[in-house]
Amino acid sequence: MGSCLSAESRSPHASSSPLTPNLGVKKWKNSKKRPGSRNSSFDYRREEPLHRIPGRMFLNGSSEVASLFTQQGKKGTNQDAMIVWENFGSRTDTVFCGVFDGHGPYGHMVAKRVRDSLPLKLSAHWEVNINGSDVLKEISLNTAGSMNSEDSALAFADEELRASIDIGEVEKRPEIFQTLRESFLKAFKVMDRELRMQGSIDCFCSGTTAVTLVKQGRDIVIGNVGDSRAVLGTRDKDNSLIPIQLTVDLKPNLPEEAERIRKCRGRVFALQDEPEVARVWLPNNDSPGLAMARAFGDFCLKDFGLISVPDISNRRISEKDEFIVLATDGIWDVLSNKEVVDIVASAPARSSAARALVETAVQSWRQKYPTSKVDDCAVVCLFLDSDTDNISIAANTRSKEQHCSADEVNCTTEKEDPSCPTSLDRSGTVRTGQEMNPKGSKEDAEEEINSEPGKDWSALEGVSRVNTLLTLPRFVPGEVKL
Fold it and tell me: Are residues 212 and 223 in contact, defined by beta-carbon separation less than 8 angstroms?
């Protein structure tokens, strides 16, 4: 990368810091008398292996309220990860969902680390009910007047929200949004700092997206970083199924994102071979060519405008809202929002909805882009009313089924027509415009079942717009980590 890189080089900060990779968790463990904390099963869950926690699903399968499926593409190791966590935070009416799309040589490791750690951090910060002034105060103390782009963005997000919402509008927002908004901001910030400080994964040129959702009762709050997407399937006044995009694809072509990056000396431009794909580049080096404006990790760009501050939004679920689809860009690159909700609605059972969507996307890849490498795909379908079956009569009979059927789904699709979000109330962060689970478990073996030796890849092969990084290879199993 040469001399253009920041002072935060590949040397992990952990070697000079007393803090450990599990900074967020250990901090709460030792803070027994922290004001605002409450007794719950969180301490128990902190010691319990993640794959044994009831209600936490991260493998292909289904429950009464959700369907999950991921499939490796043709670029090497599957870098996508996903999770559904029922009874999240010891709350029986609460579900956490997320999909994570890793990129770079060790993107699959970053995606799994964030999948496993971020929900714990969010739950911890939610319990103590952190407010915005605490967040800003900590930023001030830790940076001593020298904020980087990440801290500045976090402070700006809070100031912009306060300035853009009048008192009457604040009162209309549900209390859960006010609480979870601060918890999302804090958890994402601590997660990224933990990735920077730990030494077990090289996150210098590797990272992940994250689109995450908390549903409590009829309220949902979404925290989004990167270009994975959440789409709602709902009914209009004529009872027709329509999609509503709940998140913004946070790419460098958005004017506000490009403005922030350029102010931090990062460069944003597209190559002649792919004029539709804006990428982020270092000030004096044509690398790494990241095709998103926000991500966890990717510390080679964190001093040059890339941030991990989530865009946060909320929605009150109505009786017409049926399900939410969270998916990585392997789905959205070949299917429109409308096609996605139609596929989920026409699945033979709720338990097979996610798999049907992934299989249709793979078929669409082969039909539309036969010379390209199919991207990894990960899907979470969250059904908003588990008591009635708005999607399929067969769903209630399969509420305890843990794995999808292998039925083939043959659908033809058309190329995506980009649609603009959304009917959500936005937070203001976007203006208008232990690494993996402990080894040896059955779940770990199943998680790696779709992984196979990968190959180096380039954004100039096939459909270049779907490749997140331009100049770096993907992880190849068996290679020695630098």
Answer: yes
Cβ atoms of residues 260 and 149 within 8 Å: yes
Rounded Cα–Cα distance for residues 285 and 456 (Å): 21
CATH code of the domain covering residue 98: 3.60.40.10
Predicted TM-score (pTM) of the model is 0.72
Domain count, the chain: 1
User: Measuring CA to CA, which residue among 453, 406, 185 is closest to residue 312?
Assistant: 185
Given pLDDT bands bounded at 50, 70 and 90, which one contains residue 87? Answer: very high
In a domain, 397, yes or no: no
In terms of residue numbers, what domain contains 110? Answer: 64-319+418-438
Q: Residue 362: is its pLDDT beyond 70?
A: yes
pLDDT by residue (tens digit) across 5-19?
Answer: 333 333 334 333 333
- The whole-angstrom separation of Cα 245 and Cα 330 is 16
Q: In this structure, what are the phi and psi dihedrals at residue 323, rounded to the nearest 5 degrees?
A: -160, 160
- Rounded mean pLDDT, 294-322: 95
Assess contact for 395 and 351: CB atoms under 8 A: yes
Kindly provide the b/e burial profile for residues 334-351, where b requires at least 16 CB atoms within 10 angstroms of the residue's own CB. bbbbbbbbbbbeebbbbb
Out of 103-107, 255-259, 294-298, 403-407, least confident range:
403-407
- Tell me whether residue 411 is in a domain: no
The per-residue pLDDT for range 262-281, each reduced to its tens digit, is 999 999 999 998 899 999 99
Helix axis angle, 337-345 to 353-368, nearest 10°: 140
Q: Is residue 235 part of a domain?
A: yes
Q: What is the pLDDT of residue 337?
A: 97
Q: Which of 200-209, 229-238, 242-251, 434-443 has the lowest mean pLDDT?
A: 434-443
Q: Which two tokens stand for residue 332?
A: 């959205």
